[in-house]
Amino acid sequence: MSTAPSLRIFGFPVDVRPGFVILLALFAFINQGELGLWLAGCVGIFTLLHELGHAFAARATGAKASIALDFLAGYASFEPTRPLKRWERAGISIAGPAVQIGLGVVVLLLMRVNPLDFDAVHRTAPALAVWWAGPIIGLVNLIPILPLDGGNIVMSGLDAIIPGRARTVMLYFSIAVTASGLVFLAASRQAIGPIFLVFPLMAQLQMLQHRKTQSGLDEHGTWQHWSASAEREAWVTGKPGSFPPGMSVSPWFKAADLARRGRLDEASSLLTNDFAVAQPANWMPPDAASDAELQALVGLLPRPFPTGNAYSEYVLASVLTRLGQFDLAGRYAADLYDRSPGSMPAVVVAQCAAALGDDDLAVRWLRAAYTSGTNLSGLGEAIDTRREFTNLRNRADVMQLRHEVASTN
């Protein structure tokens, strides 16, 4: 089990796991003497530089990136803020080995060593270590199998030819190549070689098991976007879309479906009971529902409105705001905030105050949303996009608040 990242480099969280330290120790042990120490150091440095290449490329697309260094591999994980184009994903994959190879060549040239001269790079331990840790391992990463960068690059191109099936094709191809290499090395009675292929093969089999989930993330960018798309499909087509694991269609859609079939009592009970379920939210708000559908569903709820589940209460407050019931929505959201302080309930109160013409009160609630600090990205997006805040965005205090949100987030 990894610990939380203890350092940041260029703003990226970096998690150095025990497996990475073990890997460097193995390099030093297997290649005893001066070469082993140089290899351990160079592999550590160039692996970090490789992952920083990925992380900077991901940041250039607007994604949030983090780095983990583990046994036999480094990982630059990134969370897109929007669906990425194929060439953007390919660019992120290329950036890592490009940095590793490029900087390795530069270092060798500064050492006055020709990276293409096999004899020259073998003359000193430092040159050989840089050559292996930089250009050679970087080129190995471009082999077109998953989970190597070369496999991800090919998969991005293949997706343009066979959309939706590229990951599956690449996984089966990668498993076949890796398994063949493992059999060949084992038959050749290699002592160490097969060990270094077992781990990629295990990773490939695990990726095959979760390929549908990853394909969904590739298409939608984030779990939130994927879930929102599936919820939207439910309201538009009448049938729920494909949700990511752990997520489901909203109780609002389920209640609307029951109401359409005349089962109003069941619809009311289903919607009301959701407020009593004390569990993390596993559904998205009914943003794609029409105002008429939402109005009818709100009419099925008992008065006073039910409470008990903070997320369900927030969604109801947002629905009431959308329907123009600002006084009711504001009071309901303020009561929620008193019991469970959070950024988004405070945002709803601020929306209602702004809609009712009390700009100063709205700003105070926006400040409360910032102070609670539970969802600063949601607060920033709300200030930028929600129509009730149109007249507030140019106020000096709101501009200052927006700057603080961006700096903190």
TrEMBL record:
GO biological process, one term: proteolysis
Chief location: membrane
Domain called Peptidase M50: residue spans: 41-111
Pfam family, one: Peptidase_M50
Single GO MF annotation: metallopeptidase activity
Membrane topology category: Multi-pass membrane protein
Matching InterPro entries: Peptidase_M50
Keywords: Hydrolase, Membrane, Metal-binding, Metalloprotease, Protease, Transmembrane, Transmembrane helix, Zinc
PANTHER family referenced in this protein's UniProt entry, alphabetically: MEMBRANE-ASSOCIATED ZINC METALLOPROTEASE M50B, STAGE IV SPORULATION PROTEIN FB
Protein name according to UniProt: Unannotated protein
